[in-house]
Amino acid sequence: MGVEQTAAIQKGEIELATGIIEVDDGYEGIRVFNDPMVVVLPKENSLSTRGVLLFSDLSNEPQVMFETEYTLYQLVLRACQHAGFTPKNITRVSQADFGIALVAAGTGVMVLPRSIARRYSVSGVVNIPLASDELRWELSLFWRKDQVLSFAAQAMINLVKKHLTQQ
User: Fold this and answer.
1) How many other C-beta atoms are found inside a 10 Å radius of the C-beta of residue 113?
2) How confident is the model at residue 136 (pLDDT cuts 50, 70, 90)?
3) 74 and 55 in one domain?
4) What percent of the chain has pLDDT over 90?
5) What region holds the LysR substrate-binding domain (predicted)?
6) What span, in angstroms and rounded, lies between the C-alpha atoms of 80 and 58?
7) Whether residue 78 is found in the same domain as residue 131
8) Is the dihedral of CA 13, 19, 20, 26 positive or negative?
9) What proportions of the chain, in percent to the nearest 5, are helix, strand and coil?
10) What distance in Å separates the CA atoms of residue 63 and residue 89, rounded to the nearest whole number?
């Protein structure tokens, strides 16, 4: 969940939000999208011929990452640290398409959800899957547990449950 959504839902300015969140004591939610992660690499990178990559394979690679307030930045950073390293030579971006263009130009590698990497794919890059148990992009619709939801919010939750939920 982004910083702005977190503040808005905590203040009660909004009832529902979408984002990447660990549903805990403070929130309830419904997972609506579950996407594996890939590493976007320049075709000439030595890792580009592998069938699958681990986060530890990226330890010596310069990285293109989202700005620090993005949830994906935090997820990737934690996964790197869990693999035993902290990324170095980070180029920060706020748009996936610009990040992929930087990868194509040889600036570094970028970890993205597969659907986003495919949407903005350009020539000169390849998408190599990350080992599936290391990190996934799990988008949820969520709300505060202690909040009484309006009829409209309850209707939205029911609509999402009916048409969009993924296991």
Assistant:
1) 22
2) confident
3) yes
4) 61
5) 4-164
6) 8
7) yes
8) positive
9) 35, 30, 35
10) 6
